[in-house]
Amino acid sequence: MHIGYARVSTKEQNESRQIDALVEYGVELENIFIDKQSGKDFNREAYQLMLRTLRDGDTLVIKSIDRLGRDYTAIRTEYSKIINKGVHINILDMPILNTDQQAIQGLTGRFIADVVLSVLGYVAEQERLNIRTRQREGILSAQKRGQKFGRPTKYPTTFNQILDSVNRGSLTVDQACSVLKISRKSFYNYKNSISF
Prior knowledge:
The protein is of the alpha/beta class and 196 residues long. The chain is built from 8 helices and 4 strands, in the order βαβαβααβαααα.
C-alpha cells in the first residue's frame, strides 16, 4: 500500500502542493497523513500515527526530504527506522533516495543514498538554523528601531491619575499598588510602557 506524508510548518501554510504530488504519484487521499507543525523533531501527531500504520511491504511517499524533518541526525534515524520495518521510501523530489531503487542497485545504491541523505539532512538542519538566526536578527533590528513585540500592555484607566499622585509625592508606590490592586512589578511595567 502507498502511504503519503505531508508537512507544513504552520497552520497558515498550505499543503495542497504536496497533496497534489502524492495523489498524482498514486497515493489515495485517505492514506495521506498531514502535520501542520515544525520539523524540528518527530513528536508530531500525524507522523506518529503514520509510523504505526506502516506495514512491511508498504511504500511511504514524501514530496521532499525536508517534509520528513529538519534535524540532521533525527532524519537519518527515522529513515533507517522506516526501512528496517520493511517499508520502502519514495521521495518524489530526490529519486536517488528511493529505497526500491536501492534494492535494484544493491550495495552501491545504498551507499549513494546514505551519502545523499547525509548531505540533505545536513542542509535541512542548516536551513532550520538559518531561519532561526534570521528571525532573531529581524527581531533585534526591529527592537532597535523601537518596535515592540507581544501583547499591548493594558493598564487600569485610573493609572495616569494615580501615577501623577505618586510623582507629586502624595502617594507612595506601595499605596498606589494597593489602590490599583497590582504588584510593584506591574506598576513599573505600566509606568515604563507609557513613558515612551
